[in-house]
Amino acid sequence: MKPARFHIGTSRSPVVTIDGFADPAPWIALAAEMAPFPSSKGTYYPGLRRVIGATDVAAWEMTAQLLEGAAPFIGGGFDFEGFDLIEASFSMVTAQPETLDPAQRAPHFDSTDPAYLALLLYLNETPGTAFYRQRATGIEAVNAENLPVFIEAAKRESAGLSGYTAGSNAHFEQIGAVAGHAGRLALYQGRLLHSGIIPATQDFSADPRVGRLTLNLFVRGKR
Predict the structure, then answer these.
(1) How far is CA 42 from CA 45, 70, 74, 82, 111, in A?
(2) pTM of the predicted model, to two decimals?
């Protein structure tokens, strides 16, 4: 394994990556067994999402083992003494650019809670994930105080966006990125504005063996 830690934007929010953290093959095989995944329509996620629960015995056990291995990086990278798992899921981007809702065209955040972390395991090779600053407000990390300002600007500007956000545009400046190498684990605060890097050549297949498959984990750190 090869870990790295860097900081995003003026907020200096930490991002941790660990190359070779997991062998993708068993995860892909498991995801294929659990497919087809349900649609995430009605949420911000542009595709399919299969939540992993305790009744999914094999996937649940593998997730627990992964979190055990990730614990030192959660502690060392974000100064937490422990954490609670909030949700685990397999996720696949399958929505064509022209079908996106306005909110799906812009970078998003997962939570305003600074202790809320996203752990993203890339299972198929992908360009990865990019981080952004909202130009109108300067917001990079959304919190309870700046949330209304962020939402007001986002609603005002959504009409000017089309397809997936790809790099900097008139409304958002890209301030960093993580390449989505298969087997790499990325950890970052859910309050950071971010978006998957979805190129024009993206394969929007719903087959976990060929589409953009990731394991998405959300945890809340404890001090």
Answers:
(1) 8, 31, 31, 32, 17
(2) 0.96
